[in-house]
Amino acid sequence: MLILLTNDDGIQAAGLWAMYRRLLDLGEVAVVAPLTMQSAAGHGITVMTPLVTSQVTVAEGFTGTAVDGRPADCVKLAISQLLPRPPDLVVSGINAGANVGINVIYSGTVAAAIEAAFLGVPAVAVSLYLRNGIPPDYAGAAALARRTLDQILAHGLSRSQVVSVNLPALAPGQAPAGIRVVRQCTRPWVDNYERRKDPRGRDYYWNTSVFTLATDDDDTDVAALRDGYATVTPLHFDLTDRAQLEKWSSSQWKL
Question: Can you give the pTM of this predicted structure?
């Protein structure tokens, strides 16, 4: 099995290295990741400038290809140019921070996985919830991610399917509550902006929002992650509102 490993935190990220180690016994792992952090890059791609690549050796752990672009660029370039053949699986992560609720829309980690699904490759995005007072344990998170990934593959993950996995923040010695398959929460995220003045007296605004896992419906990714579960959420990239499509299609439209 050929596995493409990518992320949005950059090729030097600790989460990428931890995930790499846990995938080695599953197949051949090729790393193609952004040169710099691309957090919240969403599904943007680079079209106006060239994509410069370089070989990078990380912490004596692996040598991968760094792409001076966005997460979706990495997947596009890897599949079309850099890999000897199309990968059998794409894993994106481990992201430093949860990607639950509407964060899925902003996430470069999830975008990389969705890009793979666009191109007919099954993909899994993996994210770790960061919580104040609990240092991130990427090695432990990678072990939990691998156990979750094994179950996803055992249940069947076919071409063009994509799954978002979120891992709980666990204190040393703490075990996860379990694994739950849940829907994406769609409640809006409230942003906070602090207004400031630049040296010339012009207003500018700094996003000061702090992500928290609020109380929510029990069947959502937000609620399950808050309660200490690893979450599994199947996603799709067809944004068609089928109920509205059916309603409008049954009426007459004229120009």
Answer: 0.91
